[in-house]
Every structure is written in structure tokens, then in C-alpha cells.
Amino acid sequence: MANPGYDGMWLPDDQDPRMQDLQPTRGERACLVGYLEHYRQTLALKCDGLTAEQLATKAVPPSNISLLGLVRHMARVEQSWFRRVIEARMDLPRLFAGEDEDAGFDFPSVDDDLVRASHALWQSEIAYARDVLDRTDLDTVVDVHGEPTEVRDIIVHMVEEYARHCGHADLVRECIDGRAGQ
What we know:
The protein is mainly alpha-helical. Helix content is 52%, strand content 4%. The protein has a two-stranded antiparallel ribbon. A hairpin with a 2-residue loop joins strand 1 and strand 2.
């Protein structure tokens, strides 16, 4: 199989949206939010240009991880941490909580409508999370399973969550069409 891409990179640097707004870090908030945004964009890039069937491909058996499942799962993660935990809205039902949904990884037969709805949900949860972060100090302490936790720790956890799943996305995408890197 030919090595698709640009010298092993996903995109040329001058076309990579994650590289367009690089500035020296100006403090903790800019650093944390910058990494979070980078990984959000990375997952979006890994999904770019694929059909509904390709997005639903579970490329690393026996795992049920697919790119579409990752998008749905990360919508759930964004909703849980920003709405339920930081805003203390634990009465809000978690997304994809049903036994047959497996935290977003399982879904009915895939079509373009499901893909659009899943991406729209994920982007909506990201927009909401950005708003929560804009109005919340990193020193704010929230309850996480009975433990006092600063919002900064939740942001670090979100960066870790996205980084881990972007690694999964790399493998799934490479199995689909050979694209890897970046």
C-alpha cells in the first residue's frame, strides 16, 4: 500500500488547522485549553473525508472502537464533565447510557443522518464546554465521586482522554485507508 499523506504527515503544516493559531503559551489556562482544542481538532481530522460506512468500521477486532463511536463517546465525555460535573447537574442523564449503546460505541445501522447527528451532538457539547470554561476559574473546586477536584484537573483529564482516543483513531484510520501520522 502506498504511504498516503505528506511525508508521513496528515496534512502539510500550512494547511493544518491546528497549526494556524500557534502562539507562545501565555499561562496555564491558554496551555490547557490549547492542548484540549488541539486534540478535539485531531479527532475531527481523523474523521474527515470518510463515508458513513468507513466511519462505522470497527478496524481493530475484537474491539468495537470506530471513528463514529469515538465521536459519540467524546460527546458523552464532554457532556458528563462539563454539564454534569463542573455545573453539578448530576440529574442530567448521561448520553449513550443504555446497555445497547456502550457509551456511544454501539449504534444502529449507520447512515449519513446518524453521522451528521453524531457530529452535530459532539460539536454542540464542545461549544457548551467552551462556554463553561470561559466562565469558570481553573481553581474552582467541584465534587468528583465525593472527592474535591479543581477544574484544572478535569481539563488535564480531558486532554488525556482525547489523546488516548486520538491514538485509537490513528489506528482505525490507518486500517481504513492507510492514512496515519500527525
